[in-house]
Amino acid sequence: IPKKLVTTVSGCADDALAGLVACNPGLRLLQGHRVVLRDDLPAIRGRVALLSGGGSGHEPAHAGYIGKGMLTGVVAGAVFASPSVGSVLAAIRAVARAGAAGILLIVKNYTGDRLNFGLALERARAEGADVRMVVVGDDCAFATPGKAGRRGICGTVLIHKVAGALAEAGASLDEIVEKVTAAAKAMGTLGLSLSPCSIPGSKPSFQLAEDEMELGLGIHGEAGVRRMKVLPADKAVETMLEHMTDPSNASHIPLTPGECPNSLCSPKFPGFWSHPVPHPAGCSVVLVVNNLGGLSCLELGIVAGAAVRCLERRGTRIARALVGSFMTALEMAGVSLTLMLVDEELLGLIDAKTTAMAWPNVPTGPATTRREEVPAPMEAPGKLQDEPGTGLGAVRVQRVLERVCSTLLDMQEKLNELDRGAGDGDCGHTHARAAQAIREWMRSRPLPAAPSQLLSSLADVLLEKMGGSSGVLYGLFLTAAARSLRGRSDSPAWADAMDAGVDAMQRYGGAAPGDRTMLDSLWAATKALHSLRSPGADPLRVLAAAVQSAEAAAEATRHMEAGAGRASYIRSSRLEQPDPGAVAVAAVLGAVLK
Q1: Residue 137 lies inside a defined structural domain of this protein
Q2: Is 274 inside any structural domain?
Q3: Same domain flag for 189 and 290
Q4: Of the four listed, 205, 419, 502, 593, which is most buried by Cβ atoms within 10 Å?
């Protein structure tokens, strides 16, 4: 049974609602019932009240959509279970007594929800309440839906928004029913999952192999229409949209000319749209990319981008795009796509303001992958390029850099192995990327003549290509050293440059000597290079001493307590090897001396 972070299995639905209300001053619980209402019920006097609900486990649906401009209240059941008739009736009575000018129940098309909300509606009518019900079925999964009809899934949230905007504008109950019914017919949703979900205290509702995904499943883990091998995100999205818009699918969303739900274009969906004949070159839609609960935000963004690209290729204008968690299925790792055909009037209702906490702050503009990029600023002219050369021979520099690259490539696996004890085992790969980038850079252009220019250019290469914290730290070191060397190339200048580089690494990286990082080797070498400031110092001897100091410091990190970097999160008893960054620095310095 999967682990869940709940207090009790039996009380999880009540606890979730209590937490929501506790954190939102605009919400109130209805005493004795699993019902959440707007705090400002008197404000609905003379307006239509909107109630929705269903089983828990779909958060933020439905209570997250309570607020001015959306729902008046929500009735919740246990996890994946319809709410009771008594609680639905209690919610109806509460809004009726607040002076609502009619009550609309917005219900997803599931048998339990239809029965319980329907029976409560009949009892409320017997008490004199003016109550209507709209049943939403937006699932595009089944090409030939059975007697039960299309399931109600994430598109229901758009109906909440449309109905809420109409109610807030003072529309009558009849008008709201007519317009949301038409809107619901021009809408479709399809889900795709990589994993099952599990009710607290229970095993997963189904199983998927590691290399499988399921198309068209329901928000309670009900079976879909097809299991298939896991596809890349763009191919998966293309498969979903093809299924959703396939004219041979009786549940499809019509995006082709002649199928538009404008009563002037087609008698199929009468009553809402007003765009002119002939049918426009491309339909406008609202796109909802919905996280079914367990998908990462990174994956969701990839899916959203793929959906926009795919729709654009089809000539579909995406008037708005909503991306996030709107109607989930507990921890299911999956996504659903919803398309609603819109005209300007319907789009205005989607854009209307609401205080509902789960409705996103949607930018009022179309989604597109064709936005013009902001031009990157050019490097300031004359930054270092005009500095004259001051003595480093290009052939000698190239030879030194080639030795450094060969050394790093040769020790790639050694550095990876040292890194596995405290990091993610990629230190060798990171330094190998740096070596390959430097080689490509050397082949592509003449080497800068001035030392400061050389170091600055190397910093740019590493910052762009090396990656990881190491790339940034080397970039910091070289950038600061280059600045110190401007206009100089004498021996004391190199000692000053090393000091400047180490100071920059400490200032921004946060490490200090003795913290078991690459800084330990650099610090030791820097101290040794201070001898370059002495008159008559032999640079080669000083450099040899610096290399020895760096190698000794790298070996000494074996016995240090890590005070910075990833290794600082590991018990020192497990760090039985020297720090890979310190070893790499010592190796680089050694390659320079050879």
Answers
A1: yes
A2: no
A3: yes
A4: 419
pTM: 0.78
Instruction: Judge whether 189 lies within some domain.
Output: yes
Domain membership flag for residue 334:
yes
Given a contact cutoff of 8 angstroms between Cβ atoms, the answer to whether 315 and 282 are in contact is yes
Write the CATH number for 80: 3.40.50.10440
**148 lies in the same domain as 212:** yes
Mean pLDDT estimate for the chain:
89
| Among 485, 487, 484, 461, residue whose Cα is nearest residue 474 | 461
CATH number of the CATH domain containing 480 = 1.25.40.340
**Are residue 32 and residue 139 in the same domain, yes or no?**
yes
Residues 106 and 214 in one domain: yes
**Three-class secondary structure assignment of 74-124:** EEEEEECCCCCHHHHHHHHHHHHHCCCCCEEEEEECCHHHHHHHHHHHHHH
Please give the average per-residue pLDDT across 65-69, as a whole number: 98
Find the catalytic residue in 33, 58, 62, 220: 220
Question: How many domains does the chain divide into?
Answer: 2
* Alpha-carbon torsion (326, 332, 334, 339), positive or negative: negative
Sign of CA dihedral 115, 118, 124, 125: negative
Annotation marks residue 530 as catalytic: no
pLDDT tens string 539-573:
889 999 999 999 999 999 988 876 665 555 444 44
The domain of 572 spans 392-593
Long-range contacts of 551-554 (CB under 8 A, 24+ apart): 551/521, 551/586, 551/590, 552/524, 553/520, 553/521, 553/523, 553/524, 553/525, 553/582, 553/586, 554/520, 554/521, 554/578, 554/579, 554/582, 554/583, 554/585, 554/586
pLDDT, tens only, 361-397: 988 899 999 999 999 898 665 554 544 444 457 788 9
DSSP assignment of 416-430, as one string?
HHHHHTTS-S-HHHH
- Does the pLDDT value for residue 421 go beyond 80? no
